[in-house]
Amino acid sequence: MNILIAGYAYIKENYFNTFKFYPSPGSISFLLPKIWKAKDGKVVFHPPKGQNVFLSKAYFYHSRYSLVGGLLKGWLPAFPFVLWRLKKKKKIKLVFSPSEPILLTTLYQGFWSKCFGLKHIIFTWENISYKKKLRGFTGLIKKLILWLNIYYSDGIICGNKKAEAIIRDLTKKPTIVIPLSGVDEDFFKPEERGSSKEKYNLTNKIVFTFVGAIGHRKGIHIAIEAFKDVVKEIPNTQFIIAGSGEYDNEIDELIKTLNLGEYIIRMPWVSHSELHHILSASDIFIYPSFSYGGWEEQFGYSMAEASLMELPIISTLSGSINEVVIDRETGILVKPEDVQSLKEAMTELGQNEDLRHKMGKAGRNYIVNNFSNKIVAGKFYEFFKKINLHS
């Protein structure tokens, strides 16, 4: 069965590469934006090249537009024209839209897929009940879009277990739990750990690291507050904070206020290859995300990649993090927004090399067995096949 995957998500090469492990990669075609801007334009993605990659101009890069908000995020106006051509040329039978079911973008693709007589699969990360989130007039509009997207769909892929539970309360259509992509166990090799310490002048240092979007909800300010006390107990330590976002200035000001400039290395958004170097120089990965503004952490790819490098993870009991980090086995999960608990976890792992090693080993095994590219690609294959056979 030939499939079209249409949307901006797979413009990220590490996401795209998961389908290289698909049992019949030649049956997958992609419709991707010619360019995609993220983090307020600070990060620009260009699509991977390939025989089955088709490009179109995309509109609406974020969720803060006046009137429409994020309803049209990633809209590809040329979708029906490309689909009509590929239906003939590639004999497409199924369309996968990796965008949320409360978006008009998803509905646009679902409507045209049905017009052409094709199966349609949608995707959701949402791990907070729509009943809690969708209120008022705007909520009413999103509810209507949600129901229409479910109506036009033949199956729903859920990025986490909470998302599946939410969707199953709304429909009896087939669902499955699969993140948008797997992670590359061959790229993130634990035997290369420590190889980059000299690159960052971190030899003989205990290195804590955060990599991700610099936003309030990621809890980086809490980690910095905790780190202030960790330094007193582990003087030979450093903290790498890599990423960009709307909270950059606040984070930089906090580091200055607490006089931690000597101990904290700030980096902007990093490429996948640079991320590998950073994790190679690290000993412990920190990700103190918490619930904020109707959002909770939905997966956490940087945590999964850090686990592949056999780094123990310190994160929070929030959102769907416990699907990526197993408490006291592959890392330590603390109460969200709790500086003292975070400080204690950082100190415990910073002072216990054996525990770091044990959790790191367990973390890699867990991620390889559940979220590697091969595992995730296989789940996509089985679900697509199921939907194709489903009457």
Structure report:
The protein has 391 residues and is of the alpha/beta class. It has 2 domains: 2-182 and 372-389, Glycogen Phosphorylase B (Rossmann fold), CATH 3.40.50.2000; 190-369, Rossmann fold. It is built from 13 helices and 15 strands. The protein has helices at 13-16, 79-89, 104-115, 130-133, 136-152, 161-168, 220-233, 248-257, 272-280, 301-308, 339-350, 353-371, 373-389; strands spanning 2-6, 28-33, 36-38, 43-45, 53-56, 92-97, 119-124, 155-158, 175-177, 206-211, 237-242, 264-267, 284-287, 313-316, 331-334. It has a 7-stranded parallel β-sheet with strand order 5-2-1-6-7-8-9, with helices on both faces. A 6-stranded parallel β-sheet has the order 12-11-10-13-14-15, sandwiched between helices. It is globular and about 65 Å long.
Please count the helical segments: 13
CATH structural architecture of the largest domain: 3-Layer(aba) Sandwich
Instruction: State the share of residues found in helices, binned by percent.
Output: 25-40%
Q: Which shape, going by the Cα principal axes?
A: globular
- List the helices and strands in order: EHEEEEHEHEHHEHEEHEHEHEHEEHHH
- The average pLDDT value, as a whole number, equals 95
Structural class: alpha/beta
Q: How much beta, percentage-wise?
A: 15-25%
Strand order of the largest sheet: 5-2-1-6-7-8-9
- Domain count: the total is 2
Query: Ends: how far apart?
Result: 15 Å
Superfamily (CATH H level) name of the largest domain:
Glycogen Phosphorylase B
The major sheet is characterized as: 7 strands, parallel
Radius of gyration equals 21 Å
Query: Which class of the largest domain in CATH terms?
Result: Alpha Beta
What low-confidence regions span 5 or more consecutive residues with pLDDT below 50? none
